[in-house]
Every structure is written in structure tokens, then in C-alpha cells.
Amino acid sequence: MRINPIQLMSSLRYLASVSLLLLASCGGGGGGATTTTPPPPPPPPPTSFTIGGTITGLTGSGLKLRNNGGDDLSVTAGSTSYTFTTSVASGGSYNVTVLTNPGTPTQVCTIANASGGSLSANVTNANVTCVNAYTISGTITGDVTVATASIGPTLQNNLGDNLFIPVLPASGVPASFTFSTPVISGGTYSVTQLSRASAPVQDCVVTSGSGTGVVANITTVAVACTKPVSIPPAQFAYVTNSTANTVQAYTINTGAPPGGLTPVGTATATGNGPYSVSVGPGSKYAYVVNSNDHTISAYSIGGTGALTLLADVDAGTPGNQTSIATGNIPYSVTVHPSGKFAYVANEGVGVNGNSISAYSINASGALATIDADGVTTGTQAIIVAGTNPLSVVVDPTGKFAYAANYASDTVSAYTIDQITGALTPVAGSPFAVVGGPSAVAIDPTGKCALVANNTADNVKSYTINATTGALALVSTVVSGAAGSAPRGVSIDPATGLYAYVANANSASVSGFSLVPATCVIASIDTDAVLGGVNPTIAAGTVPFSVNVDASGKYVYVANFSSNNVSAYSINGAGALTPLSTPTYATGTGPTSVTTAQ
Q: In the chain, what's the furthest Cα-to-Cα distance?
């Protein structure tokens, strides 16, 4: 065998190296035995990070910060830094807000670097700066000729701080008011009327309502409300098209035919299955619940009535969110008269179904979930209702909310916390209403509630206890001679003297008279065109929703299966006459119609 010398020398060098290593490991070479300890492994990366920052200028007490909509931190006066006790997971996000501004002295605090995401280190620069601020207040008076107290207006300061006046004094004796958001030192204020006083409707004039360079509390704003000669008709109408996944805006004609509808451009996209639409006071924002993807969409309303999707619907989540989550299968949405809160009836069963969700509304129209349940300890995004709540309404005084629970034959009633928006069940709630209640309407005085019962083919009227919100049955009236499966109900908001019900199975609308003092209802001759007494008037196929505009002059009905809206004028006796153009095309599957000034 031939030996390769190069391979041989390489092998010898390798054997020599191995021998030296073996000798060293055995103590060879004359040295003493040694032990080498390997270095410890590096520590694992943090799994969560703290959120905090500096505080500048805090002299008042009562500052409370909140992170990610639920982690609250109280900060003592004079503090110069803060850190939330609850950490945020690596890769997570944070959103620090001021939950409560300090007082004594009153201050307003703002936060720099308030939100962020993809966390990989502790946040130490969500810095808080506090400056002195001053309250804006004044007095308000009602029309001295009105015998009883009216429902007050909603006022605004600087086009954002809404103040709802639940009761307007009618005696001419001024009542005081104070806006909840103070104005920073050196700032400006401008008080305006966002929505009118009602029952009866009154317009309000503001004097001494604006100023600049504020350096002290303002107490001189004066608001005087007087009953107008007439209420102008609504300007816009909005319809949800549940199978087209759109909401269509219309202008309401002042020309021929008066009360007719003209589409404002093309329909605006919503989420999946838009089912109900509600417009806040002042017609600044519109809200649509999407039953199939369990969300709310929010829109700003332009001068032409056109809708623009808000860039950030969910104010409680960092970044731009095009919608905010509800409970399971939302069917109905309503806005509080103050414009500060919104409530959603979740019709679905299972997790987060059979419930009411509650939200706050900020000055930009965006929503944030609030503690809906004012009774249960902890933060509850929903409050329990009955089975299959199909609709939710707030009474005009803003004190109570009511939900029609279809499958449990009840109406749930709640008191509303005017500061937080949380709901507390009224004693005796839910109230028994046999017959598949599908909708509730409250008269403009806040004294009467009407319930449309889908399976019993009737309408029931109740008195509302002004202190507790409890319901007491007054009368039951069938929904017209041919009225079948009443689905929606609406009361004339101008006078409160008439109510109308959409009968889904009989393609008709029933009309009723209402006595506000007693809440007694009775069928009326609804069709002003036909001879004789006609308790109903023809509508489209499967009428789902009915709405009376603010002036009490027009009625609009969304017809689910004929994909249109029926429009009527109201005569002095409450009877209806179809407009010269009696129907207006919508998208497919219209389920809700509402009007706005």
C-alpha cells in the first residue's frame, strides 16, 4: 500500500494536538488541577413593560389617569412622575387618557406621547402637563307663558362640551348651569345652542356667551328660551339598507313635493348588516349598528347631509379604528339627548347577547366603551336585558332608558347616570308586556311610553314615573283593523298628540291619538284620502320602521321587502296623506329610517 506523505504528516499533527489536550485535562504538564465554570446564560427578555412619565404643573388634587380603557391610577397633588401598576405585555399597546382632571384649584391636564404600540421597552415619556383652568357657567330661563316645566336644550361650549338641561324653568326664575369642562387659563369660550328645548319646543338665545383671555371663573352667561311660532321641518333623512350594507342620506324637499326625499350622492358603505341608525343632537353625527359583524359605524354629517365615516370611531383603542365592537347581533342604537352617550340593544343570544352596550361620545363624535352596569362591581361593557331586545330608547329628559325584549315579553327600564352614562335597573324592571314587544317610543314630555307588540298585534301605553322611571299600564289598543305584526312605533315629537305604528305583515301603518296628560291612546282615521274611518293606511311591503319628523308634518316608513320609503303628510287630526310622489327608492333591505334637522 502506498502512503501519502502529506496525509501522514497531517495525521501526526492531529494526534499530537489530541495528546496535549488529554494531558492538560488530566493534570499533565506538572500543573495543579483546575475547574472552569461556564458563564451564566443571559437573562430572558422582559415579557411586559411599565407605562409612565413625568408630571409638570400639578397643584390640584383628584387627578386620575387611565390606560387602555381600564387601568386607573390616582395621582396626588404635587407629584412629578407616575407609573401605572399594571404592565403591558411585550408587543402590546398603550393609550393613556385623563379620566378626571384635578380640582382645588381646577386644572386641565394633557398628555404627550399618549399612545403607542409594539412595545419593546418601558414607556417613560407619556408626559402629563397640567395648567390652571376656569369654569364657564350662567343662568337659563324658559318661556314664562308655559304653564309647566319643559325639557331643556342642549348647550355647547367651544363646539364640543355638551350640556343637557333636563328641566327648563317655566316660571321665569333663572336656573343655574355649569359646563363640565373648564377652559384653560388665557383660553376662550363660546356658548351656543346645540338642540332646542322641547315639550313645547322653544328656541334659546345666548347673551354674554363668548370671551377670550379667561383668567377667572365665568358666571355671566345668560340663556333665554322662548316658544317659537313654528318648528321647521327636518332637513335630512337617513335609511339603513341591511342587505346592501349601506346607509343612504336624503335631503327633505322644501319645494315640490314638500317632504319628498332626494338622495345625497351615492349610499355610504357601512359594516355588515346595518340595522339601525340614530342621529345625535345638533345633527352633527350619525351612528349605525351592523348586526352581522357586531359593530357600530360612526359618521360626521356635512352641511348637505352627506355622511363621512369618522377616521377614528373607537376612541379607546390606539390608532384609527373604522368601527367599535358591540355585543352579539346589535339591532338598535340610540343617542342620549346630551349627545354624550350612546346605547345599543344586542338581540343575539350567547356571549354578550341579550344586553345593552353603553358608550361615551367625545367632542369629535368618536365612541369609547364605558362601564354600562352601574350596579355590578368592576368594569362591565354591557348590562343584562331581557331575551332578544329589539330596540332601545332614551326618554327626552335623559333620565331613563328602555329596551323592548321580544322573546321574554318584557320591557327593561334603567336609570342613567348623567355623569358616567352607566345604567342601573329600575325597581320592578323588567316590566311584563305580553305580546312580543318589538319597539318602544316615548312622548316629548317624557310622561308616556308606547310599546308595539309584534305577536299580539296591539299597542300598549304606559305612564312613566318621573322619579323612578317605572312603567304603569294605561291602555291596550289593537293595531288597526288590519294591522298585523307591528314592528316599529313613533310619536309626533312636535305635539305628542299622535303616534304611528308600522305593521310588518299587513303592509300598513296604523295611527293613534295620545293624551299626554293621561297617556290614553285610541285608534284614529289614519287614511285622510279614503272615505269612512280607516285605522290603517297602505305602506310598502314589510314596513319595518316609522319616523315622524321634528315638525310633526311628515311620516316616513322604511319598507324592507319593497326596497323603498313611503312618505306621508300629517293633517290637523293626525291622518296621513301620501305625498304626490308616495315612495322613494332605497338600497336593498331597508330596516330603519330617521330624520334630522
A: 130
Nearest Cα residue to 83 out of 51, 57, 44: 51
In three-state secondary structure terms, 29 is helix
pLDDT at 421: 95
Residue 537 DSSP class: E
231 located within any domain:
no
- Which cell numbers hold the place of 257? 313635493
Q: 68: helix, coil or strand? A: coil
Residue 21 inside a domain? The answer is no
Q: What is the CA radius of gyration of the chain?
A: 32
- The rounded distance, in Å, linking the Cα atoms of 436 and 453 is 5
Q: Is 539 in contact with 527 (CB distance < 8 Å)? A: no
Side chain identity at 61, as an amino acid letter?
S
Could you tell me if 392 and 499 lie in one domain? yes
124 and 195 assigned to the same domain: no
Among residues 105, 133, 161, which one ends one of the domains? Answer: 133
Question: Which pLDDT band holds residue 227 (cuts at 50, 70, 90)?
Answer: confident
Which secondary structure element, helix H or strand E, spans residue 13, and what is its range? helix 5-25
What 3-state class would DSSP assign to 224? strand
Strands (E), 327-429: 330-335, 341-346, 355-361, 367-369, 382-384, 389-394, 400-405, 410-416, 423-425
pLDDT digits (tens, 9 = 90+) for 176-194: 999 999 999 999 999 999 9
- Tell me the pTM: 0.85
Q: How far apart are CA 178 and CA 163, in angstroms?
A: 8
Q: Which among 15, 539, 41, 568 has a CA at the least distance from the CA of 257?
A: 568
Residue 275, domain member (yes or no): yes
For the segment 41-91, what is each residue's pLDDT rounded down to a tens digit?
777 777 899 999 999 999 999 999 999 877 899 999 999 999 999 999 999
Tracing cell 341608525 back to the chain, one arrives at 277
Q: Which residue shows C-alpha cell 367625545?
A: 362
Contact 113, 38 (CB under 8 A): no
pLDDT in tens, 424-440: 999 999 999 989 999 99
